[in-house]
Amino acid sequence: MDFSGREEPATGPRSATGASGRALVGAIILHGAHAKGARSAAAATSRRGCYPIGMGLEQDGADRNDRETRAAYGAGLFTNGVWDMLSVVVPLYAVAVGLNAAQIGLIIAARSVLPAALSIHGGIIMDELGTRRVLLWVAAASVALPLLFPLSGWFGVLTALQLLLGLATSLGMAASQTWSMQTSHGDTAILARYSVATRVGTFIGPVAVGAAWDLLGAWAAFACVSVCAAGIIWSTAYGTSDSDPRSDTRPNLGALLPNWAAHKQALRLAVVPAVAFILVASFLRNASGAIQSSLFVVHLNETGMSGTLIGLLVSIAELSGVFGSLAAAAAQRRMHANRLVIACTVISMVAICLTPLLAPVFLLLALAGVVRGISQGMSQPLMYAVLTQGVPGGRHGASVGLRNAVVRLGSIVTPALMGFIAEAYGIAASFYIIGALYLMATALLALAERRLPR
Questions:
Q1: Residue 328, C-beta contacts closer than 8 angstroms, at least 6 positions apart
Q2: Cβ neighbour number for residue 373 with a 10 Å cutoff
Q3: Could you give the angle at which helices 155-184 and 362-390 cross, rounded to 10 degrees?
Q4: Which of 187 and 208 is assigned the larger pLDDT?
Q5: How far apart, in whole angstroms, are the C-alpha atoms of residue 151 and residue 366?
Q6: How far apart are CA 379 and CA 445, in angstroms?
Q7: How far is Cα 282 from Cα 403, in angstroms, rounded to an integer?
Q8: Rounded CA separation 389/1 (Å)
Q9: 404 pLDDT band (50/70/90 cuts)?
Q10: With CB atoms 3.0 to 4.6 Å apart as the test, which of 152, 214, 409, 423 could cross-link to 116 if both were Cys?
Q11: In Å, how far are 127, 164, 175, 413, 441 from 408, measured between CA atoms?
Q12: Which of these ranges, 11-20, 272-281, 432-441, 444-453, has the smallest mean pLDDT?
């Protein structure tokens, strides 16, 4: 899958640091041997503590890498938690202020407009300025903006807030994904653990914000979102910059301006058939999530379900993704990754589009959420692994930005299209119509996948 011609490192940072420590010890021993003989060199080595120095270097490198990996896990937990909390509370607030289905669909779609337009540029900025620095900036915005929602119920104001907060939270997720790719070096097992961390955030977040909505109202619910966003700042500050040294250098603010040459290089990644497959698959895979964050919440709210139970359903689906992520590596050994992604997409789409049929029975809705969550969780680390192995290390941010641009495009199209279908034919019919359209598109992708080189 690697089209760049680069060679993947045989070992990670931990073993490389250990090799450096052993080389230092060897050099000192050889120097002592030439000067005083082998026996005196050994004594000198013992007296000077050279072996402990080497071991200290190795241990220090291992500790720093582990610390950075844990920080990336934390960033994934909080960034994804914020996104899913907003997926619950914004539709509930839109219903509470009296907006119709089409307006709600447009408001939900609005949060993906700027990410779709600027995700590639955001990825390039991460490559230029450093992932951790960008993550800190967008985390600060994610803390402040949610507190402005309860101040207004106007459609225009809510749309503007969704535009800004959508960009901040989307770039936050992209930055945490890029950071995990940098620290994992393409190791599917590490990426799977990162995926598990994101699922923990998306499990706790919706339940917490739904309960806050039911018990304390809109202000408390949006304050919960800000508190979760503050966790992003803490995680980023906790980490190191070993895999991302640009975060510690003086920022080149000129990188904030669009660089069309860099954009062209990022877009060229889409020409490669394997990368193009991942982009289309990402669009279709994200469709079920876009449905969940829009008319799924509205439909269940209209049936009389409380915000807490709606948040619980979202959390059940996200928690189930943990098991899918943990099983991804084993499943990949039994089925080609591309076909596995297609199968997961079909299963998750069917599960979400059956919502109107299953809505009267909470347990059936929960079971559908489990099935969908496992499918979504399994496909996520596979996509990250393909991107990590398929592009040069210096282009990870651009590759994530390109993928996220496609994902956010789907997050614009799906809620808006469903909203207009719901206005014309009803909310229940919109689930079936959008599901049929996307399943047909997935079938076409499966046919195209058969032509990809193995």
A1: 188, 192, 195, 377, 378, 379, 380, 381, 382
A2: 27
A3: 50
A4: 208
A5: 34
A6: 15
A7: 7
A8: 7
A9: confident
A10: 409
A11: 20, 14, 15, 9, 17
A12: 11-20
Nearest to 83 by CA among 185, 197, 166: 166
Q: By 3-state DSSP, what share of the chain in percent is helix, strand and coil, each rounded to 5?
A: 85, 0, 15
Query: What is the C-alpha to C-alpha distance for residues 72 and 183, in angstroms, rounded to an integer?
Result: 8
| Banded pLDDT at 203 (limits 50, 70, 90) | confident
To 5 degrees, how large is the angle CA 128–CA 262–CA 116? 90
Q: Phi and psi at residue 310, in whole multiples of 5°?
A: -65, -45
**Mean of pLDDT values over 113-138:** 82
The single residue listed with the structure tokens 């895999």 is 243
Q: Which residues contact 80 (CB under 8 A, 6 or more apart)?
A: 173, 176, 198, 199, 201, 202, 205
The C-alpha atoms of residue 145 and residue 161 are separated, in whole angstroms, by: 7
Q: Specify the long-range contacts of residues 40-48, CB closer than 8 Å, at least 24 apart.
A: none
Cβ atoms of 243 and 13 within 8 Å: the answer is yes
Residues of the chain with CATH 1.20.1250.20: 67-240+269-449
Provide the angle, in degrees to the nearest 10, between the axes of the packed helices 337-353 and 273-292. Answer: 20
- Please name which of 325, 387, 390, 389 lies closest in space to residue 174, comparing C-alpha atoms: 387
Q: Is the dihedral of CA 39, 44, 47, 51 positive or negative?
A: negative
Q: Which fold would CATH assign to domain 67-240+269-449? A: Growth Hormone; Chain: A; (1.20.1250)
Give the other-Cβ count within 10 Å of 47's Cβ: 8
Q: How many CB atoms lie within 10 A of CB 217?
A: 12
Tokens of 230: 């503050």
Q: DSSP assignment, residue 251? A: P
C-alpha to C-alpha distance for 344 and 331, rounded to whole angstroms: 11
- Give residue for tokens 């949006």: 222
| pLDDT value at residue 333 | 84
Per the CB < 8 A criterion, the answer to whether 291 and 431 are in contact is: yes
Place of tokens 């084993």: 330
Instruction: Tell me the DSSP string of 123-168.
Output: HHHHHHH-HHHHHHHHHHHHHHGGGGGGG---HHHHHHHHHHHHHH
List phi, psi (to 5°) of 257.
-80, 145
- Encoding tokens for residue 216? 């304390």
Average pLDDT value for the chain: 79
Dump pLDDT digits (tens) for 144-184.
999 999 998 899 999 999 999 999 998 999 888 888 878 87
